[in-house]
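This follows on from our talk about sequence and fold. I would like you to pick a protein and set down its sequence and fold. Go ahead and set the record down below:
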Amino acid sequence: MDMDRVLDSFTVGTIKDIVDSLTGFNLQWAQVSTIQEPVAKKNKLAAHIFRHLKDPAHQKHYPVLLTTLRILSRDKNGLDELFTADRIEILMHLSRLVGEQENLTYNSDNFDARVVVESLKCLCNLVYNSPAVRHICCNNSCIDGIMLRLKMYKDPQLPTEVKYFDLRILFLITALCPETRPKIRDQYHGLIYLMEAVDLILKEAEEPGQKPSKKSQRKRKKDKAKVTVEVNSHSTEQTNTKKDKDSHSLDNSSVDLCCEVLKVLFNLTVTCDRVYLDEVEEAHFLRLVGILHDLLLTETETKEKREEMLNHTINLFTNLPSSCYEELLVPIEEIGRIDNPKYEYEDKNVEAIAVLLEFLDKRLEKPLKPYKGLQELLSPVLTCLSNMARTNRIIRKYLRSQILPPLRDVKNRPEDGETLRNKLVRLMTNPNTDVKEMVADFLFILCKESVQRLIKYTGYGNAAGLLANRGLMLGGRGKGSYSSESEDSDTEEYLKVKEKINPVTGYYEPERPNPMEGMSQEEKEYEAMKLVNMMDKLHRTGIVQPCRIGEDGKPHPVEHILELTQGNLEKLEIESKEDSD
């Protein structure tokens, strides 16, 4: 539909002509983000639409009018001219994002979900595309209205779509306007209401009368600072004692809603102090980890939606204080024996940790273009698991039992195979520096930062990068603090060939025939000189740089080959002096 014809319908046509022309226009431009028309012409169309939106007589046509505005709001060109502050206020009222007193007047009557949703969609586009609109929404009733409606999430009359786009706007504001985060988190008690929203979503997927085998049924420990807030005119004590329920699957719309909540929570916690917490903050984070524990164990209708939900859950875990990870471990004595004994470890239910490991395994199997997107796929889950393993003994021991169990396969390279250990060791030599460092760091933590143990499971060649960066090429331990108890128990298969395992490759190599056997002394000297000449050529052309290990445990380049023997010569001199009479 030509824009001139649409404008003509506003000038000379009836309301039916206007609606028909806008309907055709909306169909034509439904999948397009940029409209190639002059800004003045688009502004004229917007002015006509907002004039009709202010007229209650046209209320039944609001959805069509707002759909056209939504299409116009996708194009960044001239956006601030089309959507001025007074026009934004019209959208605010149509979306019912108004202050508390106004809310009592406007929000209860004539609530048309289609109008509210279309208005919210327009605001989403505008907040995303326009810094000026973001500034307006940070200073008008937008945040007030969203937080007020967030308190009403228990209301079954509030459509899921409205909740979703409310949270979408809140996510965009907290992502693009960092200055709003403390206000939403502290002044509006955002963490509390958002956690309540996730709890409500989870309760919709539960059924009473079942054995509590999955969900954490215990009261969150250290929840001393119980906060009472008003939610939809009801007092809700923020405790975490749940009824005996078992999980059903979340439908797709609930997963989408949950993911938006998690994204907002991520923005609100990304700058939080994770070390120095007061009592209230600690109580909130403990409760949040407990809710995320339950979320990890909640099923969804499709595998794709479950992966999406787990991805956002894991992203949020990377923001949380490591002292709260204990909440992922449910004492068996509190919930009773579980159906699957493989999730019991040291009298704890570790199913949530097993879900994280399964997620990592699936990420490692994803087909990718060479090294493209690998960091984005692996960084959150590796960071999350590394933090957990570094600070929690039981989680570290469980992860190690699954990834680095006592060695049995000693006749294959550590990187060959399809176990989690094999897949991770392969990445220790990945061209992506960030990926290989994250993987090496994770495995090093599982080994309690013992160089000897890391080499045992990965081979010196695979571990060389990490050891060089940390100055540990001569052995020793990292700087981490871990329990002193031993976690090593060698298998018979390993002990039988322990002395024959090549520490560089990390596996047992059968004896091979000597390639120089049968050669004369002259032939051996010839081959040796040939090798020396090739090494010299590589050195002179800059392809390789010989180095020696310095006192700091790191490699240092040498200018001359004799420097490689300097340490040995000094050692020989010292020994000869000690032997002299």
